[in-house]
Design goal:
MetI-like fold; 15 helices; mainly alpha; 2 domains
Length: 294
């Protein structure tokens, strides 16, 4: 039997599509504008004639950025921070959420209340800095991955997801002689791939975009992530100071400072744009199931 759509339903769908198209344009235009500035002719950029598509072709900005050792050092550091930070976040969050998902776990209620309190109260920036300094984490790799390793929100979602997994599986594993570590890593986590993929991507994106922890806790240029390199080019110093080659080309009007700045932005966000489509399909299942069950 064919369903006959009402006029109101048709109007709603049309308005919904129209709104989503406008929203997509609003999100896509800034990216196209940045891409256009990175590829446009310096003279046309100075005249303000560049909008959402390139005016002329100029790849000198990309040549300068890709030839910069600072960028590749930042990339290396960011990959290390994001990879290690994501691994530790998923492992530690799972280890904390698993016992809280067991209803007969002693202290479950106390730990849950204590964890919830941390969502609303924190020590503040200065006490946090003093604590990290006291722990001798300043200018170390661990200062970029450990402080935000466990989130109360993540633990609660993981706990709710684990509670939605049949308890008979855990009981059967107990009868076969398995302990809780084996149950977690051999049974629970393999059944939670959607959840791990979702929060893994959230964590990777968070580490990739993080610059404030590096600004506070790192004093060595060799340890800066790629976002700090981008911040330095965009805000701290002019693009002409990124290298002698850049200064020479700007003086010869072969490249505009906007070419270098926008090329840096594009080069910085490309890895996330490549990873995102492959994990996006897990978002709805991982977040909704984890937040609704339990």
């Amino acid at each position: 039997m064919r369903y006959k759509r009402s006029a109101g339903s048709t109007v709603f769908d049309v308005l919904n599509y129209f709104f989503m198209i406008l929203l997509s344009i609003a999100m896509l235009y800034p990216f196209l504008h940045v891409l256009s500035l990175s590829l446009s002719d310096p003279k046309l950029i100075t005249r303000g004639r560049v909008s959402w598509y390139p005016q002329g072709v100029n790849v000198e900005g990309y040549k300068i950025i890709l030839g910069s050792s600072q960028l590749w050092t930042g990339y290396r550091n960011t990959i290390i921070y994001a990879g290690l930070g994501t691994l530790l976040t998923l492992v530690f969050t799972s280890l904390m959420a698993y016992p809280l998902s067991i209803r007969d776990f002693v202290g479950r209620k106390f730990v849950t209340i204590f964890l919830t309190i941390t969502m609303f109260f924190s020590g503040g920036m200065i006490p946090t800095y003093l604590l990290i300094k006291k722990l001798k984490l300043i200018n170390t790799i661990w200062v970029m991955v450990l402080p935000g390793c466990i989130s109360a929100y993540n633990v609660i979602v993981f706990r709710s997801f684990f509670q939605g997994i049949s308890g008979e599986l855990r009981e059967s594993a107990y009868l076969d002689g398995a302990n809780d570590i084996v149950i977690l890593f051999k049974i629970i986590l393999p059944l939670s791939k959607a959840l791990l993929a979702t929060f893994g991507l959230f964590t990777i994106v968070g580490h990739w975009n993080a610059w404030f922890p590096a600004l506070m806790y790192l004093n060595k240029d060799s340890m800066y992530p790629v976002q700090m390199v981008l911040r330095r080019i965009l805000f701290v110093s002019s693009a002409s100071e990124t290298s002698d080659l850049a200064a020479m080309r700007i003086a010869q009007k072969q490249v505009h400072s906007k070419n270098i700045q926008m090329a840096t932005i594009i080069v910085t966000i490309i890895p996330i744009l490549c990873i995102y489509p492959f994990i996006q399909k897990h978002f709805a299942k991982g977040v909704l199931v984890g937040s609704l069950k339990g």
